[in-house]
Amino acid sequence: MTVMNSKDFNSSSILVKDIMTKSLISVNSTTTAFQIAKMMEQVGIGAILVKENETLVGIVTDRDFATKIAANNLPFDTAAKKIMSSPLITINHDESISIAAEMMSSKKIRKLAVSENGNIVGLITSTDLVNQLAK
User: Fold this and answer.
1) Residue 124 lies in a domain
2) What is the C-alpha to C-alpha distance for residues 78 and 92, in angstroms, rounded to an integer?
3) Domain of 95?
4) Where are the alpha helices (DSSP H) in the chain?
5) Those residues with Cβ within 8 angstroms of residue 92's Cβ, 6 or more apart along the chain or in another chain
6) How far is CA 110 from the centre of its chain?
C-alpha cells in the first residue's frame, strides 16, 4: 500500500475527471423537498442537481436540509428552487484534485459540479477526495 501525504496530494497529477461521479441525478426546480429526500435515501446519495428548462441551476444537498428545512421549520412540500444552493459552483474536469480541494475549502462547500465544454458531466465531493487520499 502506498501512503500519500498532503505534499503528494497537493502536487498530485490526479485529475477531477479521474475520481468524479459520472452518474448524475437531477430534478425539476418544482420537485418537493420530501421527494428529494426520498430519492437521496433510496439511491444512497447526499446531493441532487436541480434544473429549470433542461439547464442545471443549483444543487440540493443533505446539508441544505439541515440548514434550510430543519433550521427554518419549512414544510416538506417546499420546492427545490427555494432550498437549492445556487448558482452551481463548478470546476473543469481536467483540473487537479488539489485545486478541487482548495475550492471546496475556500468556499466552505463539500460538492462541486464538474464541467466539460460548458456541460455538467459529473460531481466531485469531499468524500471522493478523502477516499483518494486514503488509497
Assistant:
1) yes
2) 32
3) 14-134
4) 6-10, 16-19, 33-43, 62-64, 71-72, 80-83, 97-107, 126-134
5) 16, 114, 115, 116
6) 6
110, 124 contact by CB (below 8 A): no
Q: How many domains does the chain have?
A: 1
Is the separation of the CB atoms in 112 and 49 below 8 Å? no
Calculated CA dihedral for residues 61, 81, 94, 104, nearest 10 degrees: -50
Q: Give the pLDDT of the chain (135 residues) as one tens digit per residue.
A: 455 555 555 556 899 999 999 989 999 999 999 999 999 999 999 999 999 998 999 999 999 988 999 899 999 999 999 999 999 999 999 999 999 999 999 999 999 999 999 999 999 999 999 998 887
Q: Please check whether residue 9 lies inside any domain of the structure.
A: no
Q: Are 36 and 48 in contact (CB under 8 A)?
A: yes
Q: Is 8 contained in some domain? A: no
Task: Say what the pTM is.
Answer: 0.86
Which domain CATH number covers 95?
Answer: 3.10.580.10
